[in-house]
């Protein structure tokens, strides 16, 4: 029975990793670039929510509603002012610029908030739980998982049911022809990055409520997100959710064997899947 | 007839290679102009320059007298000049209907062309509206490409090699749509390698060779020998 | 049509002579320079070595890696494990460093070469993390907290006795001198080796692969094999540098040996600021880096922010770096690897 419990906890943890990854997957699907600062931007959003919660004494949910449009603006401006200058055939500029950004954000947060661990207080929600048969499920992990499903569903709808989604896909297919149709690819990219940041902010809320965070944990979140995207199959949104679950389950199972193995076993699961299914479980094109 | 679009002294470069050497053309309201020439004569470059894919000095291209040469492709589309690109360039991730809808992305400029009107022009597309665009035959794909461009309700429609690689009967079907397009207020520039096709449909013809206009005239008035020279170069 | 292809340029021999003089002066430094100067130069030489190898990977090979710390770490643990477990002299232990890096390179290549471009970058980061976490489980060399190089291993370091006798320095300083000479030898061999490699067909093949992969493939270049070779060479180079850095340091821990900031972020900034895709770039970059560090190191995180911003600005507005600005104006190259075609006569 303990193994069932471990796997269930792993699936729920996977919801958090899927939230980290959803924004990355969205942006990759449209621009074919990876933002190496994605994890640091999530941490930055967590600090933004923390400031809103503590300084204005807001509830975390209200803080999220305020932080999300702000982070959209951050993403939009970042794309328009910086990243759009790096779009092109050469993969070096976007990688190196976002890597630089990662270092800048981390150290700016260190300077602004010092290296202490913080947490977004969620009151009684933090410890609330319910039982399903013999298994006890925390309300917070369950909420995280439900949110991951809702976010994936919402992104899927935007992608396949709206004019914006059409423009996303058209620009992803062929930016030159899209511009002939009156679409400005740079604007579409900016909206996509903004949307990715909104998802990152949702991820940040749960990151901050579930555990302690400090300015240096961004790169590890980027790595989890990246692993989820690759396991799921690049550019497949539901695949990314599954990828997050795989990492989550691998981590809890590893931790059940030896707590020191938690992180390592998540990475090893990723490497094994990379070896046997290099294009991921649900490669794009087969959706 | 008033001049709708004109190029004056239009030059274009790809790196060190010069593709156009001072091309002067005009297009009047309601007119159909054909540009003919051999491979590499600069026809596609001319189209891409007008459409904004190749940026130019502002005054080299004017629409209703307003310089537009410096505008980016999306802005050129916004002022009413839309290109049907060579090779169709449909969006593979989109269905037929989604491809058409993308053409109407800038909803600011309304006009006669709607989804229903495009389906009336090319009824076969309505049956296949939900199919991925690339699942269609070449001729049907070309119809999608034309319909997609029409959805922006252009004042000027630029057609780059729309008969390339298609069977004669299919070409006839596609060119049969031209009168309806003109009726609804668009003017046309058509690039063709197929001289007969071009002469059959155009009010005026420009012959382009090695980046220069070598001949201009009305189809009925052009001397065939002169056209041969203008197309292939004068035999030395 | 007759033509000749030339890689050199007029005045090459002056540059070569100047380089020789500089190396000789550096080599003689222990006899008149201060110990702190040698320690600074040791740092500069090892960082420059890492930068040259990262530039070989990313600038010439098009393989952006964020995981070079894996090889630095493997090299560091190579020296320590050899000394602690098998009593191997640390200087000889550098060979163990090279082998450790070689093995990790071959194993990790199986994984990371399944990924392209940006995904390759994060893939290298993941395997480096796996390596860090795995080495932290190795209790014999200190596990998660790390360990020190045994006193007798440091004492017996090859060459230290001789240096003591010749210079009259104390033992600790003599060991610094040995490390310094090794670092100098490593950086000279690295620059010379890469220069030699780029002037051979390899350089041409790499350039062709970056400019036009399809054409290069159709010309019979096996891109996969060449890229793998570049990956492995860069790994071994970083491994030896890592062994040397931590041999001089005397202490190793998983977090310091596998630090992404110290062994990859700094290195990337050095290359980007100096000029990616040139041999001169990393040299300029490491000088700028050292000056910035001397000026700003007290400012802590501000220093990294400045470095990051500088890297971003250079990538956006001068993607060929400081050296690109210099050579773009003057056409000058210290290490000419561009091939110039001279058409001598033309038959029309």
From TrEMBL, chain A:
Pfam families assigned to the protein according to its UniProt record, in alphabetical order: BPD_transp_2
Protein name, UniProt field: Branched-chain amino acid ABC transporter permease
Organism: Pseudooceanicola pacificus
Cell location: Cell membrane
Gene Ontology annotations of biological process type: amino acid transport
Transmembrane segments: 12-34, 46-79, 91-110, 131-159, 188-209, 221-249, 261-277
Lineage summary: Bacteria, Pseudomonadati, Pseudomonadota, Alphaproteobacteria, Rhodobacterales
Coiled coil, from the record: none
Any one GO molecular-function label of the UniProt entry: transmembrane transporter activity
InterPro entries for this protein: ABC_transp_permease, BCAA_transport_permease
From TrEMBL, chain B:
Keyword Ubl conjugation (UniProt): no
CDD domains: ABC_TM1139_LivF_branched
One protein family per Pfam: ABC_tran
Domain of life, source organism: Bacteria
Domain ABC transporter: 5-235
GO biological process, alphabetically ordered: L-amino acid transport
Keywords: Amino-acid transport, ATP-binding, Nucleotide-binding, Transport
SUPFAM superfamilies hit by this protein: P-loop containing nucleoside triphosphate hydrolases
Molecular function as annotated in GO: ATP binding; ATP hydrolysis activity; branched-chain amino acid transmembrane transporter activity
Database matches in InterPro entries: AAA+_ATPase (IPR003593), ABC_transporter-like_ATP-bd (IPR003439), ABC_transporter-like_CS (IPR017871), BCAA_Transport_ATP-bd_LivF (IPR052156), P-loop_NTPase (IPR027417)
Record family assignment: Belongs to the ABC transporter superfamily.
Protein name (record): ATP-binding cassette domain-containing protein
Provenance organism: Pseudooceanicola pacificus
TrEMBL record, chain C:
Record's keyword annotation contains Transferase: no
Superkingdom: Bacteria
Species whose genome carries this gene: Pseudooceanicola pacificus
Membrane disposition: Multi-pass membrane protein
Keyword DNA-binding listed: no
Localization per Swiss-Prot or TrEMBL: Cell membrane
Protein name: Branched-chain amino acid ABC transporter permease
Coarse class of the protein's main subcellular location: membrane
PANTHER family: ABC TRANSPORTER ATP-BINDING PROTEIN, HIGH-AFFINITY BRANCHED-CHAIN AMINO ACID TRANSPORT SYSTEM PERMEASE
Stretches that traverse the bilayer: 12-29, 41-63, 70-88, 94-113, 178-198, 228-246, 266-292, 299-318
This protein's UniProt keywords: Cell membrane, Membrane, Transmembrane, Transmembrane helix
One GO cellular component term: plasma membrane
UniProt-listed InterPro entries: ABC_transp_permease (IPR001851), LivM-like (IPR043428)
GO molecular function, one term: branched-chain amino acid transmembrane transporter activity
